[in-house]
Amino acid sequence: MTGGPATFQLLASWTFEQPVLETRMPQKTAKRPASFPPPSPSLTVTRKQGREESGKGEDTAGPPNSRKSKGATCDDDTVVTALELPSAELTPAMQAYFDKCAEKLGFIPNVLKAYAFDMPKLEAFVALYNDLMLAPSGLSKLEREMIAVAVSSHNRCYYCLVAHGAAVRSLADDPVLGELIVMNYRAARLDRRQRAMLDFAVKLTAQPWEIEEGDRSALREAGFTDRDIWDIAAVAGFFNMSNRVASATDMRPNSAYHGQKRE
Question: In the CATH scheme, what architecture does the domain 141-259 have?
Fold first, then answer.
């Protein structure tokens, strides 16, 4: 991040492109000018509204296997979570960020819609995500996405496996690698550095109390600096949090992710 606490560098890169949008956020939430575009209707859809808009009259609440709608991803682009949390008014900075996502990606990632009920939470999530996943680091963007998928695989987080599995497939230009890490990263033919990185991230996820100096030494021997070790831990910690929030709310990934970079 640059420019002090009042400035966020917003990077709309929730798949494999990293277009940059720099904008200044006010210290306090500003009132939207009368001419400012209203939030997209898709941001305020609740499960009840989703049923009414689809005209199906079917109950889409509850676990996916209990839904009556046809198709594995039916309603996932309109009914984002299992919670009734209508969207708040977007700040100008967040509206610009959403617009940039729509322009560059062709859609607004559902995780952003899910957080849009509370602007401070949305802004904090976006800022932390962009700092961890896109800011300069000794870890490549692919390596950070690999951590996201390996952690999410251990936690069986549907949203993150779909969304970040697509990112791994694209950044690696290897659809099979993305699937291997989703299923079991140990089955992938990773180099020593990547294997040590994922071993550490998954151990930190599964048995954090067992991390000791030997684990950090193994990362150093694989070529990671102490700053890199911090970044590995920070990315793993972020996705452990995100996995739990996504699972708790039945957050649904955008249907577009499923087909990305399959060939």
Answer: Up-down Bundle (1.20)
